[in-house]
């Protein structure tokens, strides 16, 4: 079986690792075969059914779900913009600060804060700072010329420094631009103008902002250098924000619908195939995360996994293979997928594929779907938990999607705490994209997406159509939502692991250090991908950060619950 480039997709890697619990044999087996099988199945006609809320294969009967509303023990009144790690006042809690009520004070703080963020990026302070995990040595042919081409992130830093130069009347930086090529100098100027236009949009000086955006449009395109493509999409988002704020376009109210469209796009065959084939981010999360779960449940006879966002379910094929090789006394593995109504058909197909895969291994798998129309209706009995089961919870890029409804997020985390799992694995975007100060959020989003555009340039250079689809159908939706929308319309509110750590304390959650075996899995996955020398893996305290050329993109962490919560203390901390 071959991919678009003619490379064989079926491979088998057998690895043995030593751990305190004995030898862990890991199989990275037929992974791409499974991927192709998933895409073929999704392309087939979707089955329409009128099934009960709980769908179970093959051991358990569906349970009746009552209509009673589960009330929360605690109620909170938390503003969405409180989910912010952008701190100006050093005496304030590290979690958030309220926006200044005085307009002049807010404008001054905004400018100072924005310049500090640009300085941080320019000096490399926003790069990964943990213990680096060595992936691979740079080969001699990594640079084809005596001078390596600047990355998008480096050009963004140059553009940011040039912008600060104009603000601070500092001309010491001019000489450093002399060594740049004509194309790079043009890109630096483009970034400077984009930042200037964002500044004017933030100040609501729309006429000057539009003039600057017109200049950006002359030099930015959907094709070409990564920076040109990046500026093209950010310029569009700024124009849309101006139109919304000036009332020129009746686009208010479309933000939530657009994010729903994005979620559908992410569920599509092409988007999932792209994520698996061309970027190791998802694979690092899956293999390292599943390794962490395995180490905490491998001695159990009955294992129960609650997956909060199962998607294609590839991660559970990895776990099944590992358990099949080393757990001779296993009675069954139960996977429970919590889903919404819109996801039912796709997840039903996922369940069928997982059951088929388990059958091929002669593996005892039970797959259960719990469809949740309202998270407050969720009850422990819906999950059919056996007291003898070792329970684990897996959350991949879900929790940040719930920030717009923190009462629901609070309920979900309290519910999980009540389950008392042995481990909860959490994968999230590692970026500060929720600042209430627009220009700060713009800068953070620009550097974050700039790393991805640079990643696409290196990893998809032989597949331009795929790269264009990823940028236009996925990246653009995120950029537009972060830049053009505010309030409840702004649904993409990613925050960093530091903020999640503080939030999790509310529920008595304690970090579990990722093991050497998990780190080895992450390293092994990265080494199999194009551009492996540019991917960055770092151990930051107890969690793993995955980045591109030093810019953090995703985090992976593992947690356990203390019986006694610090909830009463954390009541005063807001996200």
TrEMBL record:
| Alphabetized PROSITE patterns for the sequence | GRAS
Q: Where is this motif: VHIID?
A: 303-307
Concerning its family, UniProt says: Belongs to the GRAS family.
What are the leading ranks of the lineage? Eukaryota, Viridiplantae, Streptophyta, Embryophyta, Tracheophyta
* GO molecular function terms noted in the UniProt entry: DNA-binding transcription factor activity; sequence-specific DNA binding
Isomerase as a keyword of this entry, yes or no, is: no
Which residue intervals make up region (Leucine repeat II (LRII))? 349-381
Q: Which GO terms describe its biological process?
A: regulation of DNA-templated transcription
Q: What is this protein called?
A: Uncharacterized protein
Record keywords, A-Z: Transcription, Transcription regulation
**Sorted alphabetically, which PANTHER family does this protein's record hold?**
OSJNBA0084A10.13 PROTEIN-RELATED (PTHR31636)
A single GO cellular-component term from the record reads: nucleus
Highest taxon in the source lineage: Eukaryota
SAW: annotated span: 484-560
């Amino acid at each position: 079986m071959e991919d678009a480039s003619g490379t064989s997709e079926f491979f088998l890697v057998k690895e043995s690792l030593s751990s305190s619990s004995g030898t862990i044999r890991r199989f990275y087996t037929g992974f791409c075969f499974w991927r192709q099988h998933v895409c073929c199945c999704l392309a087939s006609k979707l089955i329409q059914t009128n099934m009960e809320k709980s769908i179970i294969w093959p051991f358990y009967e569906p349970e009746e779900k009552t209509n009673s509303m589960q009330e929360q023990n605690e109620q909170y009144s938390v503003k969405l913009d409180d989910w912010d790690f952008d701190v100006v006042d050093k005496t304030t809690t590290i979690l958030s600060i309220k926006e200044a009520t005085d307009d002049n004070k807010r404008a001054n703080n905004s400018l100072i804060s924005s310049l500090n963020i640009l300085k941080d990026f320019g000096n490399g302070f926003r790069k990964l700072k943990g213990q680096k995990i060595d992936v691979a040595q740079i080969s001699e042919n990594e640079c084809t010329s005596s001078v390596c081409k600047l990355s998008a992130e480096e050009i963004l830093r140059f553009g940011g420094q040039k912008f600060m130069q104009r603000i601070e009347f500092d001309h010491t930086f001019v000489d450093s631009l002399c060594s740049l090529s004509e194309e790079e100098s043009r890109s630096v100027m483009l970034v400077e103008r984009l930042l200037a236009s964002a500044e004017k949009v933030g100040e609501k000086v729309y006429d000057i902002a539009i003039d600057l955006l017109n200049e950006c449009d002359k030099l930015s395109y959907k094709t070409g250098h990564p920076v040109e493509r990046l500026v093209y999409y950010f310029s569009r988002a700024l124009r849309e924000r101006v139109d919304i704020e000036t009332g020129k376009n009746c686009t208010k109210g479309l933000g939530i619908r657009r994010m729903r469209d994005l979620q559908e796009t992410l569920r599509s065959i092409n988007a999932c195939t792209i994520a698996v084939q061309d970027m190791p981010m998802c694979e690092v999360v899956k293999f390292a995360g599943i390794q962490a779960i395995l180490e905490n449940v491998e001695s159990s006879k009955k294992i129960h996994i609650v997956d909060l966002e199962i998607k294609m379910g590839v991660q559970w094929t990895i776990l099944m293979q590992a358990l099949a090789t080393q757990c001779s006394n296993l009675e069954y593995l139960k996977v429970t997928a919590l889903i919404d109504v819109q996801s039912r058909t796709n997840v039903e197909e996922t369940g069928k594929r997982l059951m088929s895969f388990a059958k091929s291994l002669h593996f005892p798998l039970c797959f259960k779907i719990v469809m949740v129309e309202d998270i407050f209706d969720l009850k422990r009995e819906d999950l059919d938990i056996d007291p003898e089961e070792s329970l684990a919870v897996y959350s991949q890029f879900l929790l940040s999607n719930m920030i717009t409804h923190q009462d629901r997020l609070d309920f979900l985390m309290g519910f999980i705490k009540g389950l008392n799992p042995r481990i909860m694995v959490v994968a999230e975007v590692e970026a500060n994209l929720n600042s209430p100060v627009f220009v700060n959020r713009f800068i953070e989003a620009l550097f974050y997406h700039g790393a991805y555009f640079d990643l696409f340039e290196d990893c998809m250079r032989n597949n331009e159509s795929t790269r264009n689809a990823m940028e236009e159908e996925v990246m653009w939706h995120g950029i537009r939502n972060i830049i053009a929308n505010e309030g409840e319309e702004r649904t993409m509110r990613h925050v960093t692991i530091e903020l999640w750590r503080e939030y999790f304390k509310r529920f008595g959650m304690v970090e579990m250090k990722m093991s050497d075996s998990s780190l080895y899995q992450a390293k092994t996955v990265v080494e199999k991908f194009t551009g492996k020398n540019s991917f960055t893996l770092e151990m930051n305290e107890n969690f793993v950060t995955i980045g591109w050329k030093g810019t953090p993109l995703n985090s992976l962490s593992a947690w356990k619950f203390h019986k006694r919560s610090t909830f009463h203390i954390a009541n005063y901390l807001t996200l």
